[in-house]
Amino acid sequence: MLLFSSNDIMTLLSNISENYRRKLFPKISNLRGATRLHLVLESLAMRNITVKGGEGYRTKEFDFKMSDREDLRYVLREKDIIEEITNELNEESIFADIGAYHGFFTLLGNTISDQQIYSFEMNTENFKELEKNIELNQNKEKINLENKAVWSSNQKLNYNKQESQSSVGSGKSKTQSITLDSYFKNKEAPDVIKLDTEGAELEILKGAQQIHEEEETKWFIEIHEKDYYELSDYSKKDLKRFLKQKGYKASKISEDGNREFIFAY
Prior knowledge:
single chain, 15 strands, globular, Rossmann fold
């Protein structure tokens, strides 16, 4: 679990709007646990935040910057996933962030691992924010940014441009897709992959046959109920069945309505 100190809470709450404050305070005040996570608003003009994780139970240190305090929602909504991914990563981990959005998990992996980091984001506007956040940080040379969709085949795809919920479908925006097998054909495959792609998860897994057969990759996957997104014509059971057929074990990390995050290994 993640814990804010009282000073951190006051620093945060004194610099955000009253409406946003009412939404955040109940969530922040209920956080408990062994990991201390500090959020510091460094510059109100730039709205930069620094995210730091202190040594705690099963938790490694991390420290990185992001350009927009709105990305604090990752800390509030994804606290269990943050801790689980942090626990699985180490200095030798190759990490892939698929559906990177503004790069929270990309930077989390980058600050823990000394190896290559791969970050995929198909939405062009989100990709600009991702690039901006990468530039704020050190050791960015080992981060590989790809403004492409990951899919079951290499092709042109349409997608709906909806900020954090962009999904492949009948939208007017176009992107080039790649498979994980083709992308990592001449590269060392990731040890850990975070997969949050608004309904494309099963298609992406289908495009990673060699990784399933030859590697011992660990997956953190967000899944939704069938038809939640335009092309997500599979159920949670379908995806879990696929993972089982490929020899993975899967456990639930968190669940929120029709949204579930699982760990497959």
